[in-house]
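2024-03-11 09:14:02 INFO queue: dequeued item Protein root UVB sensitive 6, len=521
2024-03-11 09:14:02 INFO validating residues
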Amino acid sequence: MAPAMGLKRPAAAAATAAQTITLPPPDARVAVREAVRVAVREAEQPPTARVSAVQAPAAAVDGVLCLEEVDGRRWSYVVEGAASSAGKPGRVSARGRGGSAAPVGATFRAVPLQSPLPPVEEIMSFIRSYVVPEGFPDSVTPSYVPYMTWRALKHFFGGAMSVFTTRALLNSVGVSQSRATSGAVAINWILKDGAGRVGKMLFARQGKKFDYDLKQLRFSGDLLMELGAGIELATAAFPHLFLPLACMANVVKNVAAVTSTSTRTPIYKAYAKGENIGDVTAKGESVGNIADLLGTGMSILISKRNPSLVASFAFLSCGYLLSSYREVRSVVLNTLNTARFTVAVDSFIKTGHVPSLKEGNLEETIFNPPWRHQPVAIGSRFGEAFQEPASFVSTSPLFEDERYIVTYNPTKDKVYALLKDQAKPDDILKAAFHAHVLLHFINASHANLNARKHMNSNRGSYQYVNPNPLNMDFLPHIEESCKIVTSSYGIFKRKAREQGWIMSESLLNPGRARLCGVVPQ
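2024-03-11 09:14:37 INFO prediction written
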């Protein structure tokens, strides 16, 4: 068993921790709000005014910073490219210098502790990520394997049969009876449908996202459905590109179909009371089919007047997407996924109030494109969170009694919560809460800094800003966030339960990296 994560807190760190914020215990709202305001104000003092307050711990680690485990494979993070004042290679120290770090060990690298996986094993691992649920076989019942085996055989025979049925249908509508012609057309049609099935299979790797981000994925799927319909529309303008365009459209629409079918049951489950989920699902699908038939009939009547194809498509697409957005927005879930957890914690920090189920779901972000910056990451890898060894050495003593470490990486503008191997579900929830509290500090700090820049520019004065900030430059924020989390996390959990929220670490989608330990000095 690897040694427990954490370093002994040196005397300098103890002196730093002695400077606390007075939190009025009777009123959590005042405590959190005032603590954040006071801490940010102190952290934003000129460097000369807070040298003693941000004195980093005079800690040192020789050689190895820590061990990390991801999916059963371990890495060792080794200090390199530096020497201490005594001339010892691979040694890192940390000390304060007006709020910034003066690292001796400037870099580190990840060294794998196991040999690389054989190519065959890597291929099998890749295939498993597409065909079995995460955590298999522990995440499913024993009957899952025979069920999926017979289901796969059923689809095998069904796919083979579809070639002959498609060819017969094409012949019946006037396609040439020539074997070559009808066979080629049938094969093209099968290729189009086959491309769609491949797209459906590839998107299935999203895995648990269908459980915790189901509203976001449901709306994204409807966006993809309209994109696929638009590509199909383009085949009229480019008939010579029918096959590639049709294949592309089928891939997109089948990806959308995966999101629809995968999120349907959890949404209906939110409305079912008792053991009537099957009845609720059947009636919901019946309503959808009736509406679909009515829409088809109306479209047939309108198409007889030969309206503009593009104008009709644009109007109907807008109606489809607006209805989809309102449909997803109306779903009220009692679980705290990443989006709703963010809403709940932000509300608690600013007002001391945890929103109700309806309020939290209404404020949740529905459209979350992949290029949008995510300011918080849970269960990240060590190399993503820390820039240099000294920052880790300075930060880790603050979390020696916790099963996680929280830091801010200014180069990526992101708060990272690293989980230790002993972390339990409640520790992961606490790490996520802590990360959002620290993010509130960082945002307030940036807002204050921008306000002072604006004031100084109006006065014609200049204030020095470190162009290359490090993790350690934000150590005061991390210290004060620890004090607030200690006093307020229990209150947040109690108020969340009172509002009916169900909190689970799996809904926050934590990463699989875990810190295993620190090599003793």
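2024-03-11 09:14:37 INFO annotate: Residues 299 and 312 are 10 Å apart (CA to CA).
2024-03-11 09:14:38 INFO item closed
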